[in-house]
## 1
Amino acid sequence: MSLDSDRDRNAKRRWLPRAEPKGWTSLDLLAEQEAHLRPHKPKSLCGLSFLDSAFHSRHRTRRVQESRLQPRLLREPAAPAMSIFEYNGSAVVAMVGKNCFAIASDRRLGVQLQTIATDFKRVFKIHDKLYIGLSGLATDAQTLYQRLVFRHKLYQLREERDMKPQTFASLVSALLYEKRFGPYFCQPVIAGLGEDNEPFICTMDCIGAKELAKDFVVSGTASESLYGACESMYKPNMEPDELFETISQALLSSVDRDCLSGWGGYVLLVTPTEVQERVLKSRMD
Amino acid sequence: MECVIGVVGRDFAVVAADTSAVQSILVHKTDEDKVMVLDSHKLMGASGEPGDRVQFTEFIQKNLHLYQFRNNIPLSTAATANFTRGELATALRKNPYSVNILLAGFDSDVGASMYYIDYIATFHKIEKGAFGYGSYFCLSLMDKLYRPDMSVEEAVDLVDKCIKEIQLRLVVAPQNFIVKIVDKDGAREYAKRAYTGDTPSEAATVTA
């Protein structure tokens, strides 16, 4: 059996109906074969290769997925290749003040470059002194929030008290690492008042690597801008009013430089005695 | 290709969808109903993979009926939407449905509400929304013309303007649409819209 007939057999096994130009060189065909042998990067229906574990486990259906390539192009416009973390767009920041903390997020819900809503909630309450902001893929943020509330309510029933922020951060980290090889595409920002009303903030990546900080933590598509803005505007031991001003300015100036986040801001300021929620008006673009 | 449009007005919600069943370049039928009446006061407009769409919407409808049989009261719109979202989210990492949903309903205590549920189970309550290629033309039109206290005639007029815009500007625009409404009197079909093709389409007039 010659090498040429092997290549022809592989060429016929291609899933995509394609007119092959005459005069293919052996190098081209070899490259094609090697492309088939490379680890298959499954394409999901809108060009995002994120549902790796789900699609990998069903090799039989790869053929179905690929053969729908033509209608898929008719169905959805070809979008620029975006990371799954940038699918919905988000910005979350938390800052520590004097016996208080503030957590803020943007309000845009988008689908790649299209804006769906401008009142999307990204910061969720766990208990009166503990809040979590979830940036990244919106569906995973919602699923993760539901699981965390469930776990916290169970904890409250068993322990008859609220969870400490440090404990909660470990819980989130463990929950995320459980899905190490098929993760939730979220980066949480956790902020709470611990014992003696000591503010606690931390962030983690999508597989639960905790990062504690004493001053501020950021996450989302605008995170790089947020780092810069927070670093320059932050001062230690700010009073609640000043903290609110600082975090609002940092958030708004950062999301103005990011097309995927913005469309308003939502700031939550928590002190030992009260919680202030405010919605910021910003550039709607 | 498949367009679903939804608008919430004063104590009612309107969901419109195109009625073409298309596979690649072939139009199988032009009267496919994509807005399913889930129960007496709920509408589910769905777009996406045809098999998944029919299967998933019927699944939700039957589960809704089961709940009503078991508990003697119908499920609220918010609960239905959350249930739908939960089913999509559970299936997402196993066997994903590729169905985008606009769920609209009327509850006596809350009034009319509409929920946007993406195919990856992104869940959000909205007043106006659209799926598909039509959304590129409709969303900005709705941003301009929508008001929260619209009457039925105004809302249907807005939907008509969206349909006109789709038929004017989308390259393979669906020819026929179905418009359904849900209010305190229930969920029912309101109108059908067809492209007659006699006169050239004009752009919708929008007073600034």
## 2
Amino acid sequence: MAEVDFAALKKGGFMRQKQKGYFSLRLQVVGGQLTAENVKKISEVAEKYGRGYVHLTSRQGVEIPFIRFEDIEEVRRELAKGGVKPGVCGPRVRTVTACQGSAVCPSGNIDTQDIAQELDARYFGRDLPHKFKFGVTGCQNNCLKAEENDLGIKGALDVKWVEDKCISCGVCEKACREGAISMADGKIVLDERRCNYCGRCAKSCPTDAWEGENAYLVSFGGLFGNTIHKGDAILPLIRSKEQLYRVTDAAIQFFADHAKPGERFKFTLDRVGLETFKEKMEEAYNGGISD
Amino acid sequence: MAEYQIDDTVDITDVVCPITFVKAKCAIEELDDGQILSVHLNDGEPVQNVPRSFKEEGHQILKLIDNGDGTYDLLVKKVEA
Ligand code: SF4
Ligand code: SF4
Ligand code: SF4
């Protein structure tokens, strides 16, 4: 048998197993969603080429264990018929994870699936000094654990009270868990320093007297492996998709430019300095907008 | 403050989430369109979530009255879907 190029296989999502000659094949999943057709094909392949089961990874991935080395090409072709692509491992942009977001979840502030697709199209598989993970969660409930990721995106609602729609019912004051809303003489007072943009006031107000603009909170340098670090949210609220992608572009470029091989983003930020990084991010944040 | 004519009341302080909203929902289903239900509820999760659940079901919240003893009365007008 020819020399096995493990690095190339790994890039193609084939993880060498403990058992000689077997690979666990990682599949590409975006935002935790697969079509029924995808699932059918995965099931067929797992039965025919694997051992009749799949493994769900902690990051919404699917792996088919026990694929034999000699079947790799056939498995790839077979999966492609059901629209299923192999995933990636190694030093590059990994599976983009996401919760269901505003398309399905009543609490959602942003369309997480749309963002996951866009991030995947922009960056998936891009070679970098080390692995790089994106995660997108729809609101402060953080079902998708945004801060665990090298770059985490969290849906926010930038709220504003509209006096003439308010019937002074008192619901929002109690719905707010941050104590940011108080009522004085039937009027609402919002303490902006306390507001975390969760959107609960807007979602519970019976007369829609809270108007909200979709927005994004981004965190950088999260780690949840050997070292645990909560990603740092160093930027103010991001208010448009253009602004969001300017920031993600700049962050990943910073990692590509400054990281040493095998260094996770968090450690690059520690070494180069969060302040230096912050300046770069602020440039991207403000880029193209003059105010 | 406008006074409302209350047609029925329900106490959900004796149950926990998610039964709180189930009990409140059953009570409003007994009413006719436009009638008003007063829901007696606790501080914490119930007061944070029950008004929103009524809104999501399409009913009209009129008022949340703070009883000052850790309980509230939520006045909801039934809106027939
Ligand atoms: S993070 Fe928010 S939007 Fe996403 S699933 Fe959880 S509650 Fe819903
Ligand atoms: S968005 Fe959330 S934190 Fe801000 S005022 Fe509304 S309920 Fe409170
Ligand atoms: S929930 Fe809406 S209507 Fe009621 S007090 Fe708050 S802003 Fe006013």
